[in-house]
Amino acid sequence: MLRTVRATRYVTPLREGGGLPAIVEADDLGLYVLKFRGAGQGPLALVAELVAGEIGRALDLPVPEIVFIEVDAALGRNEPDQEIRDLLRASTGLNLGLDYLPGSVMFDPAAGDRATADFASLAVWFDAFVTNVDRTPHNPNLLLWHKSPWLIDHGAALYFHHDWPSLDRVALSPFTAIRNHILLPWAATLPDAAAQLRQMLNEGLFTRILAEVPEDWLAHIPADDPRAGYLRFLSGRLEASPIFTGEAIRARAAI
Asked: In angstroms, how far apart are the furthest CA atoms of the chain?
């Protein structure tokens, strides 16, 4: 189960991220990157962050710990920036946070950063599985911390939930956006990655992760049982592994 902490101090905004995330200190004295439910992307971005991130962690991929963060109305009351004060007021209640990795830097091939074939293949398969369109050279969402890679920012995954009728079509899609993945050039062992990760996923795991999603984050989804819809999507996506794995292999061959 995800831990719940309470934000006690607003440290600084991270203006390079969508939704104006921030570094906050919590009552466990830890620092977290706080993703706001009141941001422009709305709570569905937090659903994607939670579900995709926890699947990544279940696959033993390097995803920072994910926690729920309670935001009190008094947090940031002395913040001079009106935009930040409005965001904090709109986000009172339960939000999502990721463990802050101090001193980390963004992965940058232009600076000589490289990935191993095994890690790149695992990350590419995972992102194709959760339909994450946002790990590209323009926005790597891949940090190097103590010289090891960490996968962050999964709010753009599971994009079908912004167009609920597309659920089954997206679940079975080859996910052609994988051609833009920043790690694709190094993903030389995709068949092995697919075989390894596919056997680690099942409906029981998906059900446990989906049970963590707060009810009010799902309130605006046009479905009687959103969790059942997400489960149908993830189960269908698992069955579609040969389709999107093959697409990733073809995309890499075309580089």
From this structure: 54
User: d(Cα 188, Cα 200) in Å, to the nearest integer?
Assistant: 21
Averaged pLDDT of the chain: 96
Q: Strand runs (DSSP E) across the chain, as ranges?
A: 4-13, 22-26, 31-35, 66-71, 93-99, 105-106, 142-145, 148-151
- Give the strands of the sheet with 105-106, arranged side by side: 105-106, 142-145, 148-151
Query: How do residues 158-172 score in pLDDT, each as one tens digit?
Result: 999 999 999 999 999
169: its two tokens: 């079509």
The tokens for 237 are: 């996506």
CA torsion 221-223-227-229 (nearest 10°) is: -110
**50-72 tens-digit pLDDT:** 999 999 999 999 999 999 999 99
Q: How far apart are CA 91 and CA 148, in angstroms?
A: 33
Per-residue pLDDT tens digits for 171-198: 999 999 999 999 999 999 999 999 999 9
Query: What contacts 120, CB < 8 A, 6 or more positions away?
Result: 183, 184, 185, 186, 187, 188
pLDDT at position 17 over 80: no
Element housing 206 (H / E): helix 203-210
* Residue appearing with tokens 């323009």: 138
Instruction: Tell me how far apart the alpha carbons of residues 231 and 239 are, in angstroms, rounded to a whole number.
Output: 12
DSSP state of 27: T
Look at residue 92 in the predicted model and tell me its pLDDT: 95
How far is 237 from 233, CA to CA, in rounded Å? 6
Place of tokens 């009552």: 27
Torsion, Cα 227 230 231 236, to 10 degrees, reads 160
